[in-house]
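Office hours follow-up: a student asked to see two folded examples consecutively, so here they are.
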Amino acid sequence: MLRDAPAAPLPSSQAGEWPLGRAIAQIQGIYVLAENAQGLVIVDMHAAHERVVYERLKAALGETRIDSQPLLIPVTFAATPAEIATAEAQAETLRRLGLDISPLSAKVLAVRERPALLAGGDVVELARGVLAELAQFDASHAIERAQHEILATMACHGAVRANRQLTIDEMNALLRDMERTERADQCNHGRPTWRQLTIRDLDALFLRGR
């Protein structure tokens, strides 16, 4: 499914201010198309948003801890003995990551706070993903030794998911966030987040000028 907006010339002033251009469409809930001064920009929206979220989490953690958001109703889930042991051993580390995960019973964990930056993600998947990462490290060195892996896991759960239909305003907001984010051309796994097709590239596809 292709969602588009009425086309209009891209002002040269905006082209200079917006390297990634202006959003014009979304394809299959996966790619955002944008027009810039050079031609067409294609963005993998999940990969791009994942990098944006990762860099925000990294910056927040660098300021001592990631801000948390209390949940009005705690989210509970059946946990393995290993998950419960990790939640107890890594309680302070979890708080630094903006998470409050504690045992409710011998087989159930409760999430009472989550990172404010990840307000839209699945709380249980996030909790399980972070606990799995933390289980590989001892409590005293977890953040220092596993910062990239843990934050990458959190960013993946907090990034906009594939097949979500975005409005034009949401697409443009993502493009502007990418322009303000370091290393926004690659996701946390090293994949490209966007590609440029120039007008010359497009002309070549249709044998224009031959």
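And the second, which I mentioned at the end of office hours:
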Amino acid sequence: MRITRLTKYPVKSVAGYDLAMATFGPLGIDQDRKWAVVYGSGIAATRRELSRLANLHAVCTDFGISLSFDGERIDVPWPSGAPTTAYVFSTKIEGVQDAGNYASHFLSSSLEREVRLVYMPDEVTRSVSSAYTDRPHATGFADGFPVLITSMPSLLALNAELQQPIEMRRFRPNIVIDGAFEPWAEDEWRLIRVGTTILRVAKPCERCVMVTQDPVTGEQTDQREPLMTLRRLHRASNGKIIFGQNAVVEVEGTAKLGDEVEVLERGASNLI
């Protein structure tokens, strides 16, 4: 088994970019989802309700972040203003920093919605659910966990049942693994080594309407697929539709394309 893709998503729900090598800290890939677009209420925007986020691109820089939309680009420095509050679903995150009016104007004009850009500084801790880990772990603005792992055998199994095959980017993984193993084998992984990094698989990733959207345009290509087929192929005992596994970082390190992936611990399927 080997790593075939590493992807960083600097801003929640915004297009990511691929890496040849990634550094994994306690919050996953360095600077992954440390930024978020938020509404006036502080609630983080997602492509579930704001599909134009698919057309926004973000790249981390030495000074902050570079944002581009439809040929227009701005560079946003690390914020230094007064702390504010953001929300991911019902989770309240205090101490995030607003990136200022210039970034807000650019994003509001591009997205056609009044929004602001916020950053989660290192001193802010957002804990993952303790129900799925045996010790404290944290994440950035991801839905719930810092790392998402998917496998090519599972995508091939799904595509074999779809009339229109889809690309892995719909599922927004940080790590894609390929090799001579069975589809859905990742359900039994508990601890894996990727490069010099060790990841603990925490829980299956529940899928939502975002996977029915083209990840490049945000257009909903099919109101039912691939969710309808996934519901038949790979559903948890609680009825949730699953693709991929959420993980936390047990040992910080690096990983690069082509690195071997070693399963250190296995267990029964965590869909049961």
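Two things to take away from it. The first strand starts at residue 2 and ends at 8. The chain has three helices and 18 strands.
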